[in-house]
Amino acid sequence: MSKSPVFEFLLLLLFIAIALAANATVATPVSVTQQFKEAPQFYNSPFCPVIVDEDESDGQESSILCSDQAVHVAMTLDTAYIRGSMAAILSVLQHSSCPQNIAFHFVASATANASLLRATISSSFPYLNFRVYPFDDSSVSRLISTSIRSALDCPLNYARSYLANLLPLCVRRVVYLDSDLVLVDDIAKLAATPLGDDSVLAAPEHCNANFTPYFTPTFWSNPSLSLTFANRKPCYFNTGVMVIDLDRWREGDYTTKIEEWMELQKRIRIYELGSLPPFLLVFAGNIVPVDHRWNQHGLGGDNFRGLCRDLHPGPVSLLHWSGKGKPWARLDANRPCPLDALWAPYDLLQTPFALDS
């Protein structure tokens, strides 16, 4: 019996749907195959200090990666957030008065394809001063407790606690940046934040925020734990933007202090929110406050729905899409928030339909 044309057409559609589903199952993750455009080259202003690359003639790494005159920036690097990282790098360079004096220190999982990550950065930023450092996930995996959002449980999310161990001893101060942000001001201003005689880090504080929800009732009901904040005025701060004195961090062995709280968390649940609470336990109330303009955070919404948010009142030097919603994902889904349009100009993703200029 012959089949009707309608039946054959429906059958064809079914075969196509099955083939697409199969391809989607086995395809390489999109993030690995993303192609990025080459960024413009940025040059120093005439008043910038000249950093002599003494080692380049020997075929060694540029000495800017160890220079006290350089602005040192640390970021994590992985395929999942590479698109955000590329935009962040571009924004740092574009708004810097001395872009050639910026040294980038990228931390990547030891299990990641470091060659691919390095090649991706080099292809878009051929003149960038950078180095990629492998981070042993196992060093922190055993300490991670599940949090309210799975993305917060990634071992690389905890790498900021290990910068003093990962970066060379010659790097004495660093600006740590998350990958879901862009700067619209000169990072040298942030890097020059005075840390006083003994402070280890600086970040924008939010002392009007309710500090209690960052820890569980078990924490607050135990006097030996809640007294941690005695004799200091703890305020919330976001760890996605920090100026860190690595010398003082090393001297105080602050990585061990953070790990001790994480070990306690494995035995008694004292917080719910990933890598942030250990930082608050160790540093809250003892940091140098930075103007809020340097971390207009929360633009990714909350950790559950990622709803759109407005800017905090006041001037803006850095836009930070912390929270569940990321601008590149919302733009791709044609469901952007209004402020995602401020991230889009820094997006270096090479689309299939892009025309060469």
TrEMBL record:
<dbReference type="InterPro" id="IPR002495">
    <property type="entry name" value="Glyco_trans_8"/>
</dbReference>
<keyword id="KW-0808">Transferase</keyword>
<comment type="pathway">
    <text>Glycan metabolism; pectin biosynthesis.</text>
</comment>
<dbReference type="InterPro" id="IPR050748">
    <property type="entry name" value="Glycosyltrans_8_dom-fam"/>
</dbReference>
<keyword id="KW-0328">Glycosyltransferase</keyword>
<keyword id="KW-0732">Signal</keyword>
<comment type="similarity">
    <text>Belongs to the glycosyltransferase 8 family.</text>
</comment>
<keyword id="KW-0812">Transmembrane</keyword>
<dbReference type="Pfam" id="PF01501">
    <property type="entry name" value="Glyco_transf_8"/>
</dbReference>
<feature type="signal peptide">
    <location>
        <begin position="1"/>
        <end position="21"/>
    </location>
</feature>
<keyword id="KW-0735">Signal-anchor</keyword>
<protein>
    <recommendedName>
        <fullName>Hexosyltransferase</fullName>
        <ecNumber>2.4.1.-</ecNumber>
    </recommendedName>
</protein>
<dbReference type="InterPro" id="IPR029044">
    <property type="entry name" value="Nucleotide-diphossugar_trans"/>
</dbReference>
